[in-house]
Fold this sequence. Notes:
Blueprint: E1 2-9, H1 13-42, H2 51-56, H3 58-64, H4 74-97, E2 114-117, E3 124-126, E4 136-139, E5 143-148, E6 156-165, E7 168-176, E8 189-194, E9 198-202, E10 207-209, H5 213-216, H6 218-229, H7 241-275, E11 278-282, H8 286-289, E12 296-297, E13 305-306, H9 310-323, H10 325-339, E14 342-346, E15 371-373, E16 380-382, H11 383-403
Parallel strand pairs: 8-11, 11-14
Antiparallel strand pairs: 1-5, 1-7, 2-6, 3-4, 4-5, 6-7, 8-9, 9-10, 12-13, 15-16
Helix pairs in contact: 1-4, 6-7, 7-10
Amino acid sequence: MIRxxxxxxxxxxxxxxxxxxxxxxxxxxxxxxxxxRRDAYRHPSxxxxxxxxxxxxxxxxxxxxxxxQGRWSFSSQQATLRRLDKAFQxxxxxxxxxxxxxxxxxxGVNRFDTVDFPRDGDGCRWDSTPYDxxxxxxxxxxxxxxxxxxxxVAGRVKTVGVKRxxxxxxxxxxxEQERPEPLAPTGSxxxxxxxxxxxxxxxxxxxxPNPRHGRxxxxxxxxxxxxLSRFPRVRRDKRTGNHRxxxxxxxxxxxxxxRKRLDHAHKTALSPVREHDFIAHENLRIRNMSRSVSPRPxxxxxxxxxxxxxxxxxxxxxxxxxxxxxxxxxxLTSKAESAGREVIAVDPRNTSRTxxxxxxxxxxxxxxxxxxxxxxxxxxxxxxxxxxxxxxRAGLARRNAHQx
Length: 404
């Protein structure tokens, strides 16, 4: 199996400058390749430029510009061209499927933060000084960069990536390792209901409160973004010192919220994986749930619109995105796979409106957000617990159907 590791790098001033130049030159390569594809398609011949054609030009590009493009790893530049090719493949796939295409866009220097090295030893070397007490990674054109390795890397390192987050630099590794031994079976199964008031409610009656990291930091974020909005929108190299510090403050606050949300998701996912053999959860379409409300034109007055609840829906969308359900479900699935647990996603429709005792389905069964009271048999419970119970039953039924 493949496992990813992310470690903080501690480059010197010169190395940090070289890392920034590496991102800048890879961004220039990405934008140049994108421009070539655009120009070729706009030509009357409608020429289609592929990855193989652009990769074959790298040798000439490096010879023409040895100071910039020629100093970096050839394989990392190929990875940047593959990144553009994947963007075009996704674009054509969305066009074919009839969705919103989203044509690949040019990247600004401040929005190009990752460089990948497809193979350890080709332009990079993890643990480049094995007899040094400090772990270092060697990057072509940068040197041996110190790494804060806070945990051991198991298996053989396959790829190495460099990522910039604000003023910090990280190295991202993927390592191929043997599948770990599964956890001892517990004979237990659980259903999970995701929500906003409670982040998780399980079928056993347990609750995990929603920390609301975004709402907690909303006041500081609002103040920092208001301070940033006072500066004019100019190129990165034309920003004043105060402008740069305002940008960094906003990025730092957003990064802190993201790390808190990720840490909470990891810690919350541990309990169900350790305690249960089978986990069922709702198959949520988060993108559809957080979609904006369409405007309602007024048929009696031209150019006017009727109330459509956009303000309330915007608040709900913020709460959904702040909860981070998608991140949690991804982490839960990954941990369960490593532990040998089974995870099944089920249809969430009517899970909180169906009585677990008599099976009666009605909107009136849930008079409030938290209360469930069956109008048929009188069963009462917390609405989220009822939803988790129905999710578990649907998951077990689906598993038995597949096994049968």
